[in-house]
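Budget justification aside, the reviewers requested a transparent look at the raw inputs and outputs of the sequence design task funded under Objective 1. We therefore reproduce one unedited record. The lines immediately below are the structure tokens for a 360-residue chain.
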């Protein structure tokens, strides 16, 4: 599968990224407190158009609402901000009252973009919605039975159910129904009663513990929920089949990101530096497919380095040669992955950002 490397800002690790609705502008965080916006030029190069500078500590996640054109960011400084582009083209932030005392770890807009969910290290999920009278975003908290850091969240297509993965090796599905802003929801395969914070389903990554959860993803219909754990596993829960869970443990390094790219296809990426395809059959069984590129062994560059560099590397790193490259496009772990063209039913192009500072 063809891959093209795009240079977006300096070559330092990219923690997360999100696309505008026209896919011409990207928001990235280079593992610091800034969110940088880059727009693609006719020649293919990327020019920085703006910097969103409001956080005090590292930005952990970004999401860009395609219809309302609002950006939400969350950070280790325990805050989240909603950014709205004014008539002058400048982005202005709006306060979000998260009311948490630990880092905000992940954030996602709901499908209707009238609320968003923020996971945190405070063992709380904040469901935020706009208080138009006071012009700020207020939060309602989901607390029980959460007992650890929330690492990832994803929305069901009905705009009510939310999946959350935690460091206690569990995946949970909650109701986020807020009667002040939305009509009463209809029944789904996950359950019929949906008061706010109601636990609809809970899955353990393994009876013996497994690994903490890095990513969760609903399919397009919202009938299946997939997740990846730090034990190098991928699992799928099927609601219409009685919440049956199928898990596949791989011999790869742990995955950090997960996408549905078809009705029965998943794409996962992480510490192996290359996305891997997985297939889910009608019974929910998961099987491993090919990698998007075969990396092969580590390729070492020819040692044309000077004696000075050799001794410098020996002193600094304890080795003579550091000019080595993996046989994959990315040279470090893939931190985030987004659908660039298509949707969960048929994704034609995906984008990845990684610890090597590359956008692919």
């Amino acid at each position: 599968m063809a891959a093209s490397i795009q240079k977006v800002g300096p070559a330092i690790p990219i923690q997360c990224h999100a696309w505008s609705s026209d896919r011409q502008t990207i928001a990235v965080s280079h593992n610091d407190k800034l969110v940088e916006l880059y727009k693609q030029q006719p020649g293919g190069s990327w020019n920085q158009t703006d910097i969103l500078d409001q956080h005090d500590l590292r930005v952990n996640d970004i999401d860009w609402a395609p219809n309302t054109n609002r950006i939400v960011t969350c950070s280790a400084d325990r805050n989240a901000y909603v950014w709205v582009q004014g008539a002058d083209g400048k982005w202005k932030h709006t306060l979000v009252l998260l009311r948490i005392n630990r880092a905000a770890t992940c954030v996602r807009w709901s499908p209707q973009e009238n609320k968003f969910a923020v996971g945190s290290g405070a063992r709380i999920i904040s469901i935020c919605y706009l208080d138009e009278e006071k012009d700020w975003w207020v939060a309602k908290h989901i607390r029980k039975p959460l007992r650890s850091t929330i690492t990832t969240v994803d929305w069901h297509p009905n705009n009510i159910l939310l999946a959350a993965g935690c460091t206690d090796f569990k995946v949970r599905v909650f109701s986020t129904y807020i009667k002040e802003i939305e009509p009463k929801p209809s029944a789904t395969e996950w359950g019929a009663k949906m008061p706010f914070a109601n636990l609809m389903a809970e899955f353990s990554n393994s009876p013996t513990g497994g690994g903490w959860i890095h990513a969760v993803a609903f399919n397009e219909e919202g009938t299946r929920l997939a997740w990846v754990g730090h034990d190098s596993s991928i699992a799928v829960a099927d609601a219409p089949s009685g919440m049956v869970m199928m898990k596949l443990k791989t011999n790869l390094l742990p995955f950090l990101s997960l996408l549905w790219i078809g009705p029965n296809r998943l794409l996962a990426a992480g510490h192996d530096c290359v996305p891997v395809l997985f297939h889910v059959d009608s019974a929910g069984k998961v099987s491993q497919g090919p990698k998007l590129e075969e990396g092969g062994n580590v390729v070492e560059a020819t040692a044309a380095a000077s004696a000075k560099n050799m001794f410098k590397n020996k002193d600094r790193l304890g080795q003579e040669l550091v000019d080595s490259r993996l046989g994959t496009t990315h040279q470090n772990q893939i931190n985030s992955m987004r659908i660039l063209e298509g949707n969960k039913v048929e994704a034609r192009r995906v984008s990845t950002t990684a610890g090597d500072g590359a956008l692919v």
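The chain has one helix and 28 strands. Residues 301-305 have pLDDT under 50 and may be disordered. Computational costs for records of this kind are itemized in the attached budget.
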